[in-house]
Design a protein that fits this description.
Helices cover 13% and strands 39% of the residues. The protein is mostly beta strands. It has 4 domains: 7-62, OB fold (Dihydrolipoamide Acetyltransferase, E2P) (Beta Barrel), CATH 2.40.50.140; 73-133, OB fold (Dihydrolipoamide Acetyltransferase, E2P), CATH 2.40.50.140; 148-205, OB fold (Dihydrolipoamide Acetyltransferase, E2P) (Beta Barrel), CATH 2.40.50; 210-275, Winged helix-like DNA-binding domain superfamily/Winged helix DNA-binding domain (Arc Repressor Mutant, subunit A). The N and C termini lie far apart (66 Å).
Length: 276
């Protein structure tokens, strides 16, 4: 069965003037145009290709790798806006449509948005949607507290940043627990801090508890070495000053310098910390 929006491993059936015809084990075939045909190939062997619909809405194969596949969330740029909607650059010749009904707000050419790629069951076309919540499921959770997860940043709110967890669930990272620059579409690791009774998920961008001590101590020590062994920071420094230099909270900083002090790596002075 040919899977639109996915990679398919297909057998090379025959060579024609316009390209190679590839087929699956159910008798379906699809054209791989000449411009995507590899330099060497053999009839009967298999090729891995991506399948989608061309400008005439016919299934077509390509060896190009799209930026997004069916069932994924990804940050894409709007290449064009017309009367049908916004068309995203996803690395293929034919752009990926986001119909107006699938836009959270009116999309603008040149701007970047996180979208979800899916198959429109009415038209059998691959389309994208910027209305992300309807493709996220927090009813049947597959994560637990303290689990390390993959995150995609999607939207800034009054409380913090909304994130997609493991390409499946919706979570929130609170603003006062973010100690580095983040932007829409950023991919990073996080830790499940809390699963609330209503299945809302709080997420941290750093390990919990004792796990944060060693990385924090290492980061402080490495920053000291890059600054001639001295930083004008100490346990009385303002949280904003610590965040600006080290991208960590004051609490984490104090635990980190405590670890370094006990290990006799630093000395703590009234004007800052210094490598011994």
């Amino acid at each position: 069965m040919l899977l639109l929006g996915k990679y398919n491993r297909l057998q090379i059936l025959r060579e024609t003037g316009v390209g190679l015809f590839l087929g699956d084990d159910e008798g379906n075939d699809v054209l791989l145009p000449n411009k995507y045909v590899p330099r060497t190939y053999e009839i009967g062997k298999e090729l891995e290709v991506f399948c989608y619909l061309d400008h005439e809405e016919r299934p077509i194969a390509t060896t190009l790798q799209p930026y997004i596949t069916k069932g994924e969330f990804q940050l894409l740029q709007v290449a064009e806006v017309n009367e049908f909607g916004a068309f995203m650059d996803w690395g293929l010749e034919k752009h990926l449509l986001v119909p107006f009904r699938e836009q959270r707000s009116k999309m603008k050419e040149g701007h970047w948005y996180v979208v979800y790629c899916h198959l429109d069951t009415k038209t059998n076309r691959l389309v994208a949607s910027n209305k992300l919540d309807k493709f996220l499921d927090n009813e049947d959770l597959t994560v637990k507290e303290r689990e390390v997860v993959d995150l995609i940043f999607t939207r800034r709110t009054d409380l913090g940043w909304e994130v997609i967890i493991n390409n499946r669930h919706k979570g929130l990272v609170y603003s006062n627990e973010i100690f580095k620059k983040v932007a829409i579409g950023d991919n990073t690791k996080g830790v499940i801090k809390r699963v609330r009774p209503d299945n809302k998920i709080d997420v941290l961008l750093q390990p919990l508890g004792a796990n944060v001590l060693e990385p924090a101590a290492n980061k402080i020590y490495e920053t000291l070495l890059r600054n001639n062994g001295f930083l004008a920071l100490h346990d009385k420094s303002e949280p904003e000053a610590i965040k600006a230099i080290l991208q960590m909270s004051k609490k984490t900083f104090k635990k980190g310098i405590g670890t370094l002090y006990k290990a006799r790596k630093i000395e703590i002075k009234a004007n800052g910390i210094r490598v011994i």
